[in-house]
């Protein structure tokens, strides 16, 4: 089966085609990626210091048809070859989700193809399966997933496709949001997460004693608002004695911030692995590309005898491939008697879910 994936939850418009044949034959899942097209709106939103929802929605409208044509061309497929259409139904920006959902439904009616509404985070947490590794090397169910992005920081137990249990989450800011806000405090352009990580490499460890929120809380929840406030306090203290932040100060503070976030994420993920007796940890989401976090997780996995898996770097941020793949796995589950989020052709009505909890009940029944 060939599945079209459509992603428009925020500021990336992504479309991709995925063929289930290699996965069904026991080959690496990455071999099923036929082609993809992606447009990022980062440059458009930079002057505003963050995503402007109305502008994001309008840009999705402009980009989605040309990107579909590009994805079809790169895949050497005609639209009629598509067997099903998967799209991000939520969570995300309501207007942005509406563009992708409306387009998917219209295309489904035109092609007479079934539709699969996908939870955005489901796409992320399954994306490490798309690493070009053998089935034996891929993460095996059940595994623990650490989802870290600008909007989410969660630990999930993944017992199968559509079978997700929330183990812990942030009580305030997501880690990626804290990265971007800290970067802004240090004078870095939006989005500043990646730039902050690069700056941290130049910094000295231990100059600033920043808090590790909830490191010893005894549960698997997170909190990053206090850490962000601690960074602001250091910046204000420095600005009181000097008109600008010098390079050494900025690099050292960036290093202390990154070290604090990484320590908390690694400790909680390791605890989840131990508590739930899993041997595989999956890191997913935009912050999954962070090299400091990857290095620390690799070391922790070595010391505590578990395996850690990452999506390909180009699939860490939002993209159509992960949505197509999640839709493909749900179709295969249905093929073997499971339940799937599959909306048959009906009266043409549809909905989006800007807020949507990812759990076994929410992702199948609601």
Write the layout of secondary structure elements.
Elements: E1 2-7, E2 12-19, H1 21-24, E3 33-40, H2 42-46, H3 53-75, E4 84-90, H4 94-111, E5 115-119, H5 120-126, E6 143-148, E7 153-160, E8 163-169, H6 175-185, H7 193-201, H8 225-239, H9 247-275, E9 280-284, H10 291-304, E10 307-309, H11 320-335, H12 360-365
Parallel strand pairs: 1-4, 4-5, 6-9, 9-10
Antiparallel strand pairs: 1-2, 2-3, 6-7, 7-8
Give a concise summary.
This protein is an alpha/beta fold.
Tell me about this structure.
This protein has 366 residues and is an alpha/beta fold. The protein is 43% helix and 17% strand. The protein folds into 2 domains: 176 residues, ATPase, nucleotide binding domain (Nucleotidyltransferase, domain 5, 2-Layer Sandwich), CATH 3.30.420.40; 173 residues, ATPase, nucleotide binding domain (Nucleotidyltransferase, domain 5), CATH 3.30.420. The protein is built from 12 helices and 10 strands. Strand 7 and strand 8 form a beta hairpin. Helix 6 crosses helix 7 and helix 6 packs parallel to helix 8. The radius of gyration is 21 Å and the shape is globular. The C terminus is likely disordered.
Sum up the structure in keywords.
Nucleotidyltransferase, domain 5; 366 residues; 12 helices; five-stranded mixed beta sheet; alpha/beta
Outline: globular
CATH fold description of the largest domain? Nucleotidyltransferase, domain 5
CATH architecture of the largest domain: 2-Layer Sandwich
Number of domains: 2
Rounded to an integer in angstroms, the radius of gyration calculated over CA atoms is 21 Å
Strand order of the largest sheet: 3-2-1-4-5
Estimate percent helicity: 40-55%
Mean pLDDT: 91
Low-confidence stretches: 340-346, 360-366
* Oligomerization category of the chains in this entry: single chain
Instruction: Give the N-to-C terminal Cα separation.
Output: 25 Å
| CATH top level assignment of the largest domain | Alpha Beta
Tally of helical segments: 12
Strand content: 15-25%
């Amino acid at each position: 089966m060939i599945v079209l994936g459509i992603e428009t939850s925020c500021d990336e418009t992504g479309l991709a085609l995925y063929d289930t044949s290699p996965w069904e034959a026991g080959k690496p899942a990455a071999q099923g990626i036929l082609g993809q097209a992606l447009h990022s709106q980062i440059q458009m939103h930079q002057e505003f210091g963050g995503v402007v929802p109305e502008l994001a929605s309008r840009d999705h409208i402009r980009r989605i048809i040309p990107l579909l044509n590009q994805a079809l061309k790169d895949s050497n497929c005609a639209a009629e070859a598509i067997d099903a259409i998967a799209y991000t139904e939520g969570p995300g920006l309501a207007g942005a989700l509406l563009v992708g959902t409306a387009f998917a439904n219209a295309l489904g009616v035109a092609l007479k193809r079934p539709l699969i509404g996908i939870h955005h985070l489901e796409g992320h947490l399954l994306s490490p399966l798309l690493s070009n590794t053998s089935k034996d090397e891929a993460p095996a169910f059940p595994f623990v997933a650490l989802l870290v992005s600008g909007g989410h920081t969660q630990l999930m137990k993944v017992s199968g496709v559509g079978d997700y249990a929330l183990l812990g989450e942030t009580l305030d800011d997501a880690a990626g949001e804290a990265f971007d806000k800290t970067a802004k405090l240090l004078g870095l352009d939006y989005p500043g997460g990646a730039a902050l990580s690069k700056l941290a490499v130049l910094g000295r460890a231990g100059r600033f004693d920043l808090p590790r929120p909830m490191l010893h809380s005894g549960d698997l929840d997170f909190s990053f608002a206090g850490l962000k406030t601690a960074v602001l306090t250091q910046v204000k203290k420095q600005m009181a004695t000097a008109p600008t932040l010098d390079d050494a100060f900025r690099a050292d503070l960036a290093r202390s911030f990154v070290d604090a976030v990484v320590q908390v994420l690694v400790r909680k993920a390791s605890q989840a692995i131990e508590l739930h007796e899993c041997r595989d940890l999956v890191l997913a989401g935009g912050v999954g590309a962070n090299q400091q976090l990857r290095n620390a997780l690799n070391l922790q996995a070595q010391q505590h005898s578990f395996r850690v898996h990452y999506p390909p770097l180009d699939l860490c941020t939002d993209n159509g491939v992960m949505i197509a793949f999640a839709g493909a796995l749900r179709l295969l589950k249905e093929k073997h008697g499971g339940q799937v989020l599959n909306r048959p052709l009906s009266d043409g009505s549809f909905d989006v879910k800007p807020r949507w909890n990812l759990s076994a009940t929410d992702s199948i029944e609601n």
